[in-house]
Amino acid sequence: MNPKNHKKEKTQTSKDNVAYKTSTGKSSPLGATVYPNGVNFSVFSKNSERVELWFFRNADDTTPFQVIPLDAEKNKSFYYWHVFVKDLKPDVLYGYKVFGEYDPSKGNRFDGEKLLLDPYARAVVKGENYSRAAAVAPGDNAPYAMKGVVIDPYTYDWEGDEPLYHPYAQSIVYELHVKGFTKHPNSGIEEDMRGTYTGLIEKIPYLKDLGITAVELMPVFQFDETDAPSPQLQNYWGYSPLAFFAPHGSYCYCDEPQVNADEFRDMVKAFHKAGIEVILDVVFNHTGEGNQTGPVISFKGLENSFYYILADNPEYFADFSGCGNTLNTNQYIVRRLIIDALKRWVTEMHVDGFRFDLASVMSRDEHGNPMDNPPILWEIESHPVLSRTKIIAEAWDTGGLYQVGSFIGNKWAEWNGKYRDDTRRFLRGDNGMVHAFAASIAGSLELYNKPFRDPNRSINFITCHDGFTLNDLVSYNTKHNQANEEENRDGSDENHSSNYGAEGPTDNLEIETTRLRQIKNFFVVLLLSQGTPMISMGDEVRRTQSGNNNAYCQDNEISWFDWDKVHENRQLLEFVKHLVRFRKDHPIFQLEKYWAIPDPGEPNILWHGTKLNQPDWSYYSHSIAYTLQDKESDCLFHFMINAYWEPLPFELPENRAEKNWYRIVDTHLSYPDDFKKNELPLEHPGFYELKPRSIVVLKEGDASSKA
Q1: What pLDDT is attached to residue 11?
Q2: What is the b/e burial string over 355-386, where b = at least 16 CB atoms within 10 angstroms of the residue's CB?
Q3: Percent of the chain, pLDDT > 70?
Q4: Which residues does the annotation mark as catalytic?
């Protein structure tokens, strides 16, 4: 399938006016299932009194071309309403009207005037007249509602493609926003293709050259861009899903729903051909329906009290997500929905893994209380379809749960928020951080102390979509979120950042030099620590958001990847590429046991300070050194880190027989001397003076040859 051959046009179905005949249908599978002789529809709604299935030809049609009333005696099995529509073909648009008691004091929000999305819809269309407000206001919203699309998921030619399943130990993750990566006018992408799955394919060579092994895509489930604080802003990030089975339609180059799903598959297949995994950032902790004042789009109108955790007064929604509602993930109907959605993305869309936003929400019961053994998390971990799939938890929520290091299960990886904070603080020069920083470098063993745990399931990161970019981390003391129209109240107030002498952009060469050096320091630590590194989009070329640390609503150049910076900061980009390759070339950085645990013999890491074998763990220490022994390749590496604002001399270990130390990295030096693979041996092997705020990496090599 080549999306370039498809122009944007309205979806059309058969134009005949003949009503489709129906039969009873089946309760399983849920959703719209295509058969050779028609389509079976099934939807869950326990307490509703009446259900209608509405068919449309176009997204903006004001009236359906057919309404199929479902008979509770014939078309309902237990909690499931179902019907088989004979001779119906894929691409028809549909939605449900569900009638029943509207009594929020009981948790019931049935509203037969609202057209509802099928939670299992595999594709969704949103017309030009779509209105979120119409889903809030009284009255019929069918002309203004999103609509599901009947598609056949099994007609796509995968050409033998399968998920890649790289081990964590060999993975380098790159978090990116599908739209933001190519939307900028200077992206070099054809205008209609900018910000699309197809446009992203065009940039795969850049990512492959960078050396990353996986992209982690910010949310691609269908969401509502108008779910934003004001009409001038948009929901850019997409952390408010409405349909867990459907790729977000606005990221499609084509406007044909069946092709839209295939366009996503084309992207996955292209990444796989380049050896790059596709991990989805999934949001199962809340939906885009908001709180009690929010719209009725799907779940609220189907069975509100099942899908959501309600407050003690059921008129209101419990909010452990910070977004108005909380999905009731351990309720059996919702558990099935989540598992079915994950299976769909693995089997039908070939994705390689999932990062679960605010995953700690999924450990709460129907009353919001933390559970010791949450069924949904164990089911995700143990499901055979997901057995080789990466599952990564953001192990906290906005209700106070912080489970980094204690998240449930034996398979889950975790975003290591402690690694982020400890690394930021130590390199900034905070007191009392040397021990925590050293522990983070060596895989956070004290945090992840479960027996037999793979240290690479610590997903290490310095920055991500949420917070400052790496450039802004070293350029701003405080957030600057005025563009979000919330009077700078949103976003974190504590970023462990520093501007090193001036707030924002500066012409001061000394400040700018320090900032660049700190960026290189962060990359050295990130890419050469034990654990799986994750790079945030554009950090390798100093992408900036002008100090905005919560750009969720900025669908503009504040958030987009500025491709001019690839040229402007090509020297930093080359430095990062060298580090990525260096990590891949040496087994010690891919070890599946902790450096600090002897197995067998001595541990792989030996700590020092400025004096050999004398690490300074004191409160005012701002330096650390360590020697790594790569037993597999019989090679030694020596790291020296000076987070102090004055130069410090570091003693060097003596070389083994016929060996010399070769400098690989010195972040104080300018390009191309900051990274040297073919350096001459050190002339003064007894010590090395580290300049302020710098990192040096040495590698042992044969005395008769270059490193």
Answers
A1: 37
A2: bbbbbbbbbbebebeeeeebebbebbeeeeeb
A3: 97
A4: 357, 394
